Amino acid sequence: MEVRVLASTSGSHTRSLGLVGIGIVASGLLVNVYLAIVARNLPAAEYAYFGAFWSLAQVAGFGMFLSIEQETARMLQTPGRPLGVLKATLFTAATMAVGQLALVAMAWPLLQATFGGHAIVVVAFGVLCLVSAGQFVVRGALIGMDRMGRHAFIMFVDAVLRVGLATLVASLIADPGSSGFAWTLTAAIALSHAPQLVSLLRRRTRATTEPDPAAGWQTPRAVWSAVAPLLLGSVCAQLLLNGIPVIAPVLAETPAEATAAGQLLAAFTLSRIPLFLVVPLQSALLPMLTAALHGGDRAKLVRMMRLLALSLVVLGAAAVGVGWLAGPWLVGLIFGPEYVLGGMHVALLALGVAAYIVLVLVTQVLVASVRHRLVAWSWLSGLVVAAVVLAVVPDLLLRAELAFLLGSVTGWVVGTALVLSERRERVLQSVA
User: How many other CB atoms are found less than 10 A from the CB of residue 171?
Assistant: First the structure.
């Protein structure tokens, strides 16, 4: 499969990327306000259970449907595309969501234990799987239709709704528990994206280009064939990023460890703020990377990888310094004094985030060089190392922090080796 990167140097496209970047940064900051509201209204141990729900929601959403968003955007901008692209992608996403619901049903006892024994949170998670399918189809359609302003606005509305609903729950319910706040996430996604999905299906929002009737109708099978190669890498990426907050409460054996798991989530949430800048950065870098790599200049490729390695050193040093010196104070300021961890713990998490950022950029080099199947190997290698660290390190906090850090570093090393290898994908198919 060949995923053609849609690049443009025009001022309108630059403004579009800027709008998406502003939307992501603004919504990212609001999401952290949302998490802080939840943390300040829950005991640390109960917040750890909410954190498990939040992290699994990222896996079920971003991990499963990000490739749907990308493929929807690509197909809607393809000249002479078939008819029915939006309906085919929505059907594919809905089918994937039904598969997720089957897994939720089979894993119900495990999920209920992970969510602190709250069965209603498992229900909220199942509903979230369904609404996430529509969410990422909407996002991809708006990108493909070049409605970047509306895309950014919906992201902002989603974040505002999360903050507003969490504030209502905290104000109106004396003891909401993690279950009360779990539904705020599901409801915010549904309320912000459902009206736009209806508008798209009724063709009130239209693409800037028209399909070609001679090309026939797009089929869900064709959409799945395009999505499948990127799905494994996307899921592994989200598991590496969000698996630690899910597993930490499960591994906690005492009330003290359960509290530590909540503190870990608060520090991890704060450390991950720079990741909200990575998504627009990927969009901005892909056209440049594609132009550079398809020119066949290997020396330029080597220089690029050296620059990324240097970036990891610089980012890592800054992350350790800020995390160690200012991390505990910032965690206490935002989440409350009961969530404060020692500087070493925050520094390890921040260093892991720096490695994860560079790993994301390395995998974008693989995407730009049309080597999509190799992307999954980078993420999978990091995930395997993280699992091994979790199994062998005894201390709850250290095993979580080192698993994320060493997993991200391993993914970067493997990804860099794959980028510099001579191997190329032999069969590349264009999905019209």
Answer: 9
Listed residue (89, 411, 364) closest to 230, CA to CA? 364
Torsion of CA 333, 335, 340, 343, to 10 degrees: -70
The set of residues, in sequence order, having a beta carbon less than 8 Å from that of 129 and lying 6+ positions away, is 60, 64, 97, 100, 101, 104
For residue 25, the one-letter residue type is: V
- Are the CB atoms for 222 and 72 separated by under 8 Å? no
What single DSSP character describes residue 62? I
Neighbours of 13 (CB within 10 A): 16
Residues facing 217 on adjacent strands: 83
Distance CA 207, CA 144 (A): 7
Phi, psi of 174 (to 5 degrees): -65, -45
**By the 8 A CB rule, do 133 and 227 touch?**
no
E-state strands within 274-404 = none
What distance lies between CA 78 and its chain's CA centroid? 25
Interhelix angle for 372-392 vs 220-251, to 10°?
20
**CA-to-CA separations, 397 to 252, 268, 331, 403, 430, in angstroms, rounded:** 10, 11, 16, 10, 46
Straight-line distance from the first to the last Cα atom of the chain, in angstroms, rounded to the nearest whole number: 11
Angle at 95 between CA 90 and CA 98, to 5 degrees: 125
Q: What is the pLDDT of residues 97-135, one digit of tens each?
A: 999 999 999 999 999 998 989 999 999 999 999 999 999
Query: How far is it, in rounded angstroms, from Cα 105 to Cα 126?
Result: 9
Q: Residues 69-108: pLDDT tens digits?
A: 878 887 787 777 777 888 899 999 999 999 999 999 999 9
